[in-house]
Design brief:
Layout: H1 20-55, H2 69-93, H3 100-108, H4 111-120, H5 128-137, H6 140-148, H7 157-188, H8 196-199, H9 201-215, H10 221-224, H11 237-267, H12 272-300, H13 302-326, H14 329-367, H15 372-387, H16 389-401, H17 406-429
């Protein structure tokens, strides 16, 4: 590329963000433009994935479908689980697409779940299986949201963490936007006409896909494509341990934030506007807490902040169980909000901890004589593999929060958070063992 200030059409054969001269001559502008457009696509994707958490609150009303309480929980969870399943499949299928092309494809694919939802919501007596099938297509939103972080490849390595944080925050706000649309529908139309909550995504999808097609740029596939996890990842205990921490924090943040409205509406008979406004507040606070968790992790260590958040979540879940048993809706709503915020804080910290752990292991491998490029490719692949488990965790958390028998589910989550806190402390947060005692510590690589 001879003029770095000009738009890259169709692909940058040479992109060197590490070169200060290249970056200042126009690379910074190109990178920021691509990041903002990718974040917009991720934002719309998260909104599409989250819309069924709002739609289920309106389904018993009007002339549309009317699933029972168990059916509503299933409709809430289905997009999360479908997204977690679709994500690795899409990464393999779209592995040769980079930058603009990947964003256009994943964003344009959101047209199907949106139009399908608009149609089925206007069909009286639609069977539950059809509703679940349509809700499953909304899992495509998770693929679009995950693709947004790929724009970090336009940035120098020192700035890629911040770029990922921006893309993630933009995507997380998609849930708040669709919850706001639900509040407007409940207040203005009383919930009698709510198909427009899905229909409003049609122009948003067109805007995001069109903007990406016209103004985003491609990178060489080697930099822009997702990194596949290397063989042997399933035998790495850190992959499993960090996946559990990701499920407990990022998964709970997603699942609890989406389930909050249904929990209040179904479990405490709160009105739809009240339930959605409480869910919106929790989502906004949790979204704000997530980058704060990353910043605190950079100052105090990802393991410590993760441990604090998990201990707080376990304590909050115990209070939730007690409040649910007594029917104390005010206490339940306040503590539930606090748990969502703590989960967002932990999600941000785990986002720092995961690459730090695998970078530390890559550093140890290089010191032992392994090729540096191979070691860091392994680290990136295993970090990406850990992130894929958060969607399944979100589905599990949402299902537990909306269970027909909430007390056993809440106590089960309490035990899970406690076990994850023990894991975070014993493996990552406590002081490294003395030389010659126990296993290799991670402290020399600055994890704490």
């Amino acid at each position: 590329m001879t003029n770095p200030a000009a738009p890259l059409r169709p692909k940058a054969e040479r992109w060197d963000a590490e070169d200060p001269g290249f970056w200042e001559r126009g690379g910074r502008h190109v990178a920021r433009r691509n990041l903002l457009l990718a974040a917009l696509g991720g934002h719309v994707g998260t909104s599409v994935r989250s819309m069924w958490a709002v739609l289920v609150l309106f389904l018993p009303a009007g002339d549309g479908p009317a699933p029972g309480p168990g059916g509503m929980s299933l409709l809430l969870v289905t997009p999360l689980v479908a997204g977690a399943v679709l994500r690795p499949v899409a990464e393999r299928a779209l592995g040769r697409l980079a930058g603009r092309d990947r964003t256009v494809v994943t964003t344009a694919a959101l047209t199907l779940p949106v139009l399908a939802a608009v149609y089925v919501l206007q069909q009286p007596g639609a069977p539950l299986w059809l509703l679940v099938a349509v809700a499953a297509t909304a899992g495509a939103g998770d693929v679009a949201a995950a693709s947004a972080t790929g724009a970090a490849a336009f940035f120098p390595r020192r700035a890629q963490d911040r770029a990922v944080a921006v893309a993630t925050a933009g995507a997380d706000l998609g849930a708040a936007v669709v919850q706001t649309a639900g509040v407007v529908a409940a207040v203005t139309a009383g919930g009698s006409s709510f198909a427009w909550i899905a229909a409003v995504h049609v122009p948003l999808v067109a805007l995001a896909a069109g903007g990406a097609a016209l103004r985003m740029d491609n990178l060489p596939v080697a930099r822009g494509a997702a990194v596949r996890g290397p063989r042997g990842a399933s035998r790495d205990p850190h992959v499993w341990g960090l996946s559990l921490l990701s499920v407990a924090t990022a998964g709970s943040f997603t699942g609890y934030g989406l389930a909050f409205g249904l929990v209040l509406g179904g479990g405490f008979n709160s009105s739809v506007p009240t339930a959605l406004m409480c869910a919106l507040l929790a989502t906004l606070l949790g979204t704000a807490a997530r980058p704060c968790g990353g910043l605190l992790a950079g100052r105090w260590g990802g393991a410590r902040i993760t441990l604090v958040s998990l201990v707080g979540m376990a304590a909050g879940t115990a209070v939730l169980a007690a409040a649910a048993a007594r029917g104390a809706v005010e206490v339940f709503a306040a503590v539930f909000t606090a748990v969502v915020v703590l989960a967002g804080l932990g999600a941000g910290a785990v986002g720092v901890l995961v690459p730090a752990v695998f970078a530390a292991r890559a550093g140890a491998s290089i010191l032992a004589g392994r090729d540096a490029a191979t070691a860091f490719a392994t680290a990136r692949g295993r970090s990406a593999g850990v992130a894929r488990f958060a969607g399944l965790g979100g589905g599990a958390a949402a299902l537990g929060a909306t269970a027909l028998s909430p007390l056993p589910a809440l106590w089960g989550l309490f035990a899970f958070y406690g076990a994850c806190a023990v894991l975070a402390y014993t493996t990552y947060a406590r002081r490294a063992p003395a030389r010659g005692r126990g296993t290799r510590g991670l402290a020399p690589y600055g994890l704490r």
